[in-house]
Amino acid sequence: MILTPKGVGFTWNVAQGDRVTAGDVIGQVDLKQLEDYDQTTAVVLTNTFDYEEVSIDLDDDQHLIQVKGGK
Fold first, then answer.
1. CA-to-CA distance for 13 and 26, rounded, in angstroms?
2. Alpha-carbon dihedral angle through residues 11, 14, 6, 8, given to the nearest 10 degrees
3. β 51-56/65-70 pair status
4. Phi and psi at residue 33, in whole multiples of 5°?
5. Is the per-residue pLDDT at 1 higher than 50?
6. Is 38 helix (H, G, I), strand (E, B) or coil?
7. Beta carbons of 26 and 12 less than 8 angstroms apart
8. What span, in angstroms and rounded, lies between the C-alpha atoms of 61 and 44?
9. Which of 32, 49, 54, 58 is deepest in the core (most CB within 10 A)?
């Protein structure tokens, strides 16, 4: 069963159609308000072949995915 908090705990800094660039904060999550929900998040990389190197650092809470040498 999938439960959704219906927007509770989420604050969005952009709207649909806005242009964003690397480093822009697109939204924030108040995890305290989501304590009763599973906080597992899937991360899907669809263009890894576009980069010379893709690495994942589970200990870096600011930069989970690092890419080098983009086409």
1. 5
2. 0
3. antiparallel
4. -75, -10
5. no
6. coil
7. yes
8. 17
9. 54
Which tokens hold the place of 67? 């890419």
Question: Position 28: which residue type?
Answer: Q
53 beta partners: 68
Whole-model pTM: value is: 0.47
- Quick one: what percent of the chain has pLDDT higher than 70? 92
Task: Give the whole-angstrom CA distance, residue 67 versus residue 69.
Answer: 7
Question: Could you give the CA distance from residue 64 to residue 62 in angstroms, rounded to a whole number?
Answer: 6
pLDDT band at 2 (very low <50, low <70, confident <90, very high): low
C-alpha distances out from residue 70 to 6, 47, 58, 62, 67, Å? 37, 10, 22, 21, 7
The pLDDT mean for the chain works out to: 84
Q: What is the mean pLDDT of residues 52-61?
A: 86
